[in-house]
Amino acid sequence: MSKVSRALGAAMLCLGLLSLAGIAVAKQEPTTPAQPKKEHKMKTTTLNGTVSAVTDSALTIVDSQKAEHTLTVTSETKVTKGGKDAALADVKANDVVTVEARQGEGNTWTALKISVS
């Protein structure tokens, strides 16, 4: 009888430990999988045209369809002229430019890159 009692005791001990482990796992807060970050893609475009006006904070160009586009210029705007780094002050009226711009709130555009031909 002692062997049967030991076997029964060992079985009950194992069942008790397994049930405690199950309760401990069940009480843990469920983890939610990490949600991928939604990247807010800004709309960018490339505009080609002729400079009609330039200030310290804006550039106005006229494209081939005679449409006028005014773009905000920031300290982050990169300016090149003839393939070399330049300053916004180097951009003059009647210069032919290619502008990479990002759309902001509403229908505003910010120049990211201005390339003078």
Describe, in plain words, how this protein is organized in 3D.
This protein has one helix and six strands. It starts with a helix and ends with a strand. It is rod-shaped and about 105 Å long. It has a domain at about 45-115: Nucleic acid-binding proteins (OB fold (Dihydrolipoamide Acetyltransferase, E2P), Beta Barrel). Strands 1-2-3-6-5 form a five-stranded mixed beta barrel. By secondary structure, the protein is α+β, with helices and mostly antiparallel strands. The longest helix is centred in the first third of the chain and has 26 residues, at about 1-25.
Give structural attributes.
22% helix, OB fold (Dihydrolipoamide Acetyltransferase, E2P), alpha+beta, rod-shaped, five-stranded mixed beta barrel, 6 strands, 117 residues, 42% strand, 1 helix
Outline the low-pLDDT stretches: none
Report the mean per-residue pLDDT as an integer.
84
Shape: rod-shaped
The radius of gyration over CA amounts to 34 Å
CATH class value of the domain at 44-116: Mainly Beta
- H/E series, N to C? HEEEEEE
CATH architecture of the domain at 44-116: Beta Barrel
- As for the CATH topology of the domain at 44-116, it is OB fold (Dihydrolipoamide Acetyltransferase, E2P)
How would you summarize the topology of this molecule?
Blueprint: H1 2-27, E1 44-54, E2 58-62, E3 68-81, E4 84-86, E5 96-103, E6 109-116
